[in-house]
Design a protein that fits this description.
With about 260 residues, this protein is of the alpha/beta class. It contains 8 helices and 12 strands. The chain has a 6-stranded mixed sheet. Strands 9-8-7-10-11-12 form a 6-stranded parallel sheet, with helices on both faces. Helix 4 packs across helix 5 and helix 4 runs antiparallel to helix 8.
Length: about 260
Amino acid sequence: MSKKQLFLIGVSLGHSFSPPFFYNKFKKEKITDYQYDACVLKTIQQVWQCVEEYPDLVGFNVTFPYKEQIIPYLDWIDPLAAQIGAVNVVKVIRTRNHFQMRGYNTDHIGFAATLDAVKKRKGAPFHRALIFGTGGSAKMVAFVLAQQGVEYHFVSRNPDLGFLTYELINQEGMEEYDLLVHCTPVGTFPVVEQMVPIDPQLINSSHTLIDLVYNPKESLFLRKGREAGAITQNGLQMLEVQAEESWKIFSSTSF
C-alpha cells in the first residue's frame, strides 16, 4: 500500500528542520501511512507538475520564497490566510480526474506562541516593534502584532517601497522600539556569519530580539542581541507549533 505523500516546497531546503521533525513525529507516534520529504522548486510554476507527478501527494508546507507566490495557484484560501497575505500550508484534495489546492496559514499560531513565551520572560507587554523584511513571514508577524495591539514598522533594503530603511534606522537608532523581529533568510545555514545591515551597537538590554531563523540555533543577529543583554529567541518553537498545526490540516477530513 502506497503512503500518503507530504512535501516541503521552497528553493533552498537543506537547512530545514521540517523533514526531520515529521520523520521523528511519525516514528514516535507510529504513523506509518504518511511520508514527508523536501521538494525543491526552481520556480513556483513547477507546483502544478509536482502535484500531477505525485498522485499520492495530499499536501505540502510552503517556505521561502513562495508563501505569497503560491496564492494565485490556489483553488481556495482560508480567509485568515488571505487576510495575512501568506500561505504556508496547502492541502491537496483529489477526486477521480481533478485536484484542488486549499491554502492555510499556521505560521501565525507558531509566532503567537513564541511571542507569548518571550513576553513572559520580559514580564511586560510589547509596545513598538521593528520588522526586518517585507515578505510573507513579515506579513504574518505584522498580523500577530496587530492582533496584540503592538505598533510596528517594516524595515526594507528597498527605499522605493515606502518603508523604513536600514540606513534610516542606523541614523536615528532603535531606542523607541522594544521588539525587533527578523523575518528574512539572512544568516540561515550555511551562510551563518551574516545579519541584516543594522549597527549592532544600537541593540541594548531594553530590546527583545526574535529571529525566525532556527538553523543555526543562535544566529549572528541573536548573538549580537545576547551580547548586548537583550532577551533573544530563535524560530524553533514557531517551527514546531506551526508544524503540529499543519499536521492537523493534513490528517483531518475537516479541512
